[in-house]
Design brief:
Layout (H helix, E strand, L loop, with lengths): L1 H25 L7 E8 L13 E6 L3 E6 L6 E7 L5 E6 L5 E3 L6 E8 L4 E7 L1
Antiparallel strand pairs: 1-2, 1-8, 2-3, 3-6, 4-5, 4-7, 7-8
């Protein structure tokens, strides 16, 4: 009787793992050579409740950054700055064209975006 419980539990675990595997493969957020990340709002004065607004980004090694905010926007003014040399790239992302040019050399970069409403978001890109 105890052996049947062990076998039943083992089959249950294998079945659950097998059912979740196709979902994990289908939800692969990093196909190929992309780097994905999230920009968060900069801390402002008198902020009591953290904002739920975020900007997801995807970097391709062809030197392109694509932005996907979780809120409506008209334009994102993007600045990418290399942390040590302070070399800077700028661009404007819109809902119709959410991609801007970015560096293609390895290093640590600070990404800063300012929305058309004046909200600032920032994060890091590690290449």
């Amino acid at each position: 009787m105890k052996v049947f419980k062990i076998i039943r539990n083992l089959l249950l675990v294998i079945t659950l793992f097998g059912l979740s595997l196709p979902t994990a493969i289908a939800n692969d957020d990093n196909p190929g050579n992309n780097v994905n990340g999230t920009l968060t709002p900069s801390k402002g004065k008198n902020k009591r409740v953290p904002s739920m607004e975020r900007i997801a980004y995807s970097y391709t090694y062809e030197g392109e950054l694509t932005f996907t905010p979780n809120f409506p926007y008209t334009a994102l003014y993007v600045t990418v700055e290399e942390e040590t040399t302070k070399e800077t790239w700028t661009g404007v992302a819109t809902p119709d064209n959410p991609t801007v040019s970015a560096p293609d050399e390895s290093g640590t970069y600070v990404i800063t975006t300012v929305t058309d409403q004046g909200k600032t978001f920032s994060g890091f890109l590690y290449l």
